[in-house]
Write a structure and sequence with these properties.
With 155 residues, the chain is an alpha+beta fold. Strands 3-4-7-8 form a 4-stranded mixed β-sheet, with no helix packed on it.
Amino acid sequence: MMDRKKPLYRSVNTRTHGVRHGSGGEYRWSRRREDRTHDGAMRGKQHHGRDYTPLFKFLLSRVGEEWGAVFAEVVARLDRDEPVFWIVARSEAEKTPFVRIGENAYYSGLFVDAGGRLQMVDPDLRVEHMEPGCACCTHTFNGVPFTRRYMPPAG
């Protein structure tokens, strides 16, 4: 019997009272309006109830390794491969020092170098460099809470 590795995502409670997920009802309210323009085909299915934090931490732990092997393991442990490319840039134009996932979670931006190895866009970026956008939330960088406090804009 072969051991199956744990998935690189977690299920999130979507049935609790008050849990809201993205845009759910706007189309419903505009459906019968005369001035609404038709968008064409229906949009893709939204995937609520998934937390990909384990995926992002796994990818960060594999920086410097051969991308083909890392990607093969990731795909085998995911429900879909799209979240991989939320953090791993597919092209030079997509490369950013960090990416924001959700409202207050930030992760180092990753890319695949010319040698086929997974690398950080800015390996010198640290949690100490990050500044929160508000005082009400706990902001994290690669899973570590920000150390700097929120400073409101002067003015």
